[in-house]
Amino acid sequence: MADTASSAPRPFSKVIIVGAGPSGLLLALLLSKRSIPVHIIEASHQLDQQPRAAHYGTPAIPEFVRAGIIDKIRDRGLILSTMCWRSPDDYSYIAGFNADVLKDVDGQDLRTHCYVLQDLDQLMLDEALAHGATIEWESKVTGTGQDGDKAWVEIEGKGRREADYVVGCDGANSTVRKSLFGAEFPGFTWDAQIIATNTYYDFEGKFGWHDANFIIHPEHFFMVARITQENLYRITYGEKPGLTREEYIARQPEIFKKILPGNPEPSDYKLVSISPYKMHQRCAPKFRVGRILLAADAAHLCNPWGGLGITGGFVDVGGLYECLVGIWDGKADDSILDLYSEKRIEKYQTIINPISQENFRRVSDKEPATRFERDDFMQLLRKGETDKDFLKELLLGFMDVRYDFTQHYKN
Ligand SMILES: Cc1cc2nc3c(=O)[nH]c(=O)nc-3n(C[C@H](O)[C@H](O)[C@H](O)COP(=O)(O)OP(=O)(O)OC[C@H]3O[C@@H](n4cnc5c(N)ncnc54)[C@H](O)[C@@H]3O)c2cc1C
């Protein structure tokens, strides 16, 4: 059947995306695949190389499928099947699950996929550029503006760029968000410090550990999760707040010796990268003001325990894509963007924010020995160990983070 919508004059002609992080690059890829002109503006001269996201949960998988990159992610990265929480005394198993029940959900493998962020970013950038997206590096956006016909960004030393819509995908310190709401970013910052490392250490071969492991402790909580096929693991651990980056780096060997199984010396592992992070739970008042939109970390933040950060950000991007395509195809007017703001904020407040908070409280519990007795989620997982249908339903519950904006398209 002929696509009559696509031959009609288009209601807009260009989208500017601020930020070549994972959210901006996925949006650029999705839009450029639909032949919607998109221009990315990035402050840095290169993609971010810090150890950040690596694991993308079940709700993000349909976006990788839609972007046409799921096969490459599977070939180059890996899939996490087993995950558990462990006791700090002897690392014994407390509760966990095997996500293989999500291996084939109506033909889709919805298990958590893993591919280190800088490699995923490079993949999405290459694909977006191949589909016609353009990018300006070393271009720091300092402000935004809009009138009835267009929106624009001001770039330091380079002047103004205009489009019909500007999307702020510029991360936690978003200039686009600040241009709309100033310092207002409601929520809180945890009084805690975490250190993320990428480290080669054979947790599976030497200790039989799962793909992802959370060791519960009030101070020395940590996470160990495989991030490459070659035994590279993300080890993220708690530290005392208030030290300098240099002090954290100097303390790392002693901490690894103290907390990791086998009490390793530096010669027993290979540390590839290390970076301290603060953690926040915050959400912007709106994700849309006229022609300016926000997505992912620019719009909302959560702690990384449980990998809900960019997983939720990718779901935002998929929703925003559906809204913009609806407008582009004449199937929606731009009030659908108000719905984008309303529904994505609702999903953050009712799912991402409470679940991510609980994830951190679980791993940093003051009484690890009794956590299981007080933890409904862990007890449901215990039930799921023997009832696979129940486990599948439980894990698929995370798909509620998604929202289908195409249901609001005009017939
Ligand atoms: C240790 C750690 C582990 C994590 N693990 C996970 C995980 O496993 N799974 C998960 O889902 N999430 C995880 N997260 C969260 C995840 O990394 C973030 O949610 C994600 O990086 C946010 O992507 P983004 O595109 O919104 O912003 P960013 O990744 O911050 O990218 C923003 C981009 O915008 C650019 N920019 C900023 N300001 C400007 C400006 N003024 N002008 C132009 N460009 C600008 C920046 O240079 C950058 O390239 C983790 C976070 C941390 C800290």
Automatic annotation (TrEMBL):
UniProt domain FAD-binding: residue ranges: 14-347
Pfam families hit by this protein: FAD_binding_3
Top-level lineage group: Eukaryota
Gene Ontology terms, MF aspect: FAD binding; oxidoreductase activity
Gene Ontology CC terms, in alphabetical order: mitochondrion
InterPro entries in the record: FAD-bd, FAD/NAD-bd_sf, UbiH/COQ6_monooxygenase
Key words, A-Z: FAD, Flavoprotein, Oxidoreductase
Regions annotated as coiled coil: none
This protein's name: Para-nitrophenol 4-monooxygenase
Source organism: Cladorrhinum samala
Organism phylogeny: Eukaryota, Fungi, Dikarya, Ascomycota, Pezizomycotina
